[in-house]
Amino acid sequence: MHRVALTVAVGVVLGCSTPEAASVPALRPSTTAAITAAPAASVTGAIRSSTSASAAPPSTATVLAAPTDRLAASAAEEVLFVGAAAKDPAVVACRNEREDEARIRCLIAARYAGDAAASRDALALYARVGSVAGVLPEEEMDGGFRGRIHLVPEAPMGAERRHLAWITAANDDFDAFFTELARVAKAPLRYRFRDLTYRFFRSVKRTTPSAYAVGWSVAYNVAGSLNTSAEAVRETLFHEIFHLDDAAHDDWSARALRPTFDAIVLRCGTRVACLSPYAPSDTMVRGGTYYAFQPNNGDAVHEYAAELGLRYYRDNRAAIRGEAFKKPGFKCGPPENQRAWEAIAGEFFGGVDRTPICAR
Ligand SMILES: [Zn+2]
Q: Which of 55, 100, 150, 283 is the most buried (most CB within 10 A)?
């Protein structure tokens, strides 16, 4: 099953977009906080829970440097309550909190009241990485040749709360991963995965798109065909978040990877056997080719880059965790892979590469 190939998008969507949605929107300039070397503290994965609505954060916050992109309480109101934000009594009551963080905790607790487990996860997500899980406003998505898709807001509660648990667990993993990268990096990491909004929805009578990313926000489908396990969701999230960072770095992939990408496509076209050594992941489009090289999928270099970002995360995560590689690392393939690997590591990840040296 491919990860994102059936993902459709409206015109403002960055990643995984349809051919008619190929343009990359002008986002605000990058305000990504440079992640500097963290103090010597162990990364804690344990999330302690709290049942108190506006009590102290229920989990240990990240050991990474304090971010500069914290969400404003007004933004949290909108993502949590959308159209009802202005007059919902719970929202109004939370405005008594003077500090934004306390007010946002109050808002999260109010939104998830009635589902203690979901509330704990949402509060833990915010405490750990500053991200707020809310809902997507109702919309009609233009799915191009797939037709129109009706998206309705649906909070990840009750029968759907597992999706929020997966998102929170994924962010714990990212936090541990980037903390370790920052610990060994000689240059600042320039990759924002914190302080995002997650907007949950359900696609009516459809199972696509599974997710899409735009403007420091990830929209997530509780009915998404690919959102079936913690691991699948973690990897889909990394891919989507990469699109956000790629755009925020002035469309980095279009500048830095285009020559490499074009040369590969010129050589191979869509032939699977030829592309195989260059594909950052095994993700395939049904009836097509590797997702990273699938034509008519927006500006395909964006997808090559997002899959490359995912592979960087996968291989380095495995190396950090001491896991055995099932096959040689991506960088150990053709010279094009090595160049792309070094480029992405340098641009986003402080030049760190923890993967094993290639046996040449
Ligand atoms: Zn994508």
A: 283
For residue 300, how far is its CA from the centre of ligand 1 (angstroms)? Answer: 9
Which tens digit of pLDDT belongs to each residue from 210-252? 999 999 999 999 999 999 999 999 999 999 999 999 999 999 9
Give distance in angstroms: CA of 109 to centre of ligand 1.
32
Rounded Cα distance between 11 and 128, Å, is: 32
CA of 227 to the centre of ligand 1 (A): 15
Contact between 225 and 6 under an 8 Å Cβ cutoff? The reply is yes
Whole-number Å distance, alpha carbon 135 to ligand 1 midpoint, is 21
User: Does the pLDDT of residue 293 top 70, yes or no?
Assistant: yes
Ligand 1 centre and the CA of 252: distance in Å?
15
Pairing of strands 197-203, 148-153: antiparallel
Cα–Cα distance for residue pair 296/225, rounded to 1 Å? 21
How far away, in angstroms, is 136 Cα from ligand 1 center? 19
In this predicted model, what pLDDT tens digit does every residue of 158-168 receive, in sequence order? 999 999 999 99
Q: Is 198 helix (H, G, I), strand (E, B) or coil?
A: strand
Q: Is 217 helix (H, G, I), strand (E, B) or coil?
A: strand
Contact predicate 203/139, CB 8 Å: no
pLDDT at position 28 over 90? no
Q: How far is CA 62 from the centre of its chain?
A: 17
Helices (H), the chain: 73-81, 89-94, 100-111, 116-129, 161-184, 230-248, 252-256, 258-268, 272-275, 300-320, 335-348
- Per-residue confidence band for 64, with pLDDT thresholds at 50, 70 and 90: low
pTM, whole model, 2 decimals?
0.83
d(CA 134, CA 85): 12
Paired residues of 198 in beta bridges: 133, 218
Q: Determine the distance separating the centroid of ligand 1 and the alpha carbon of 110, expressed in angstroms.
A: 33
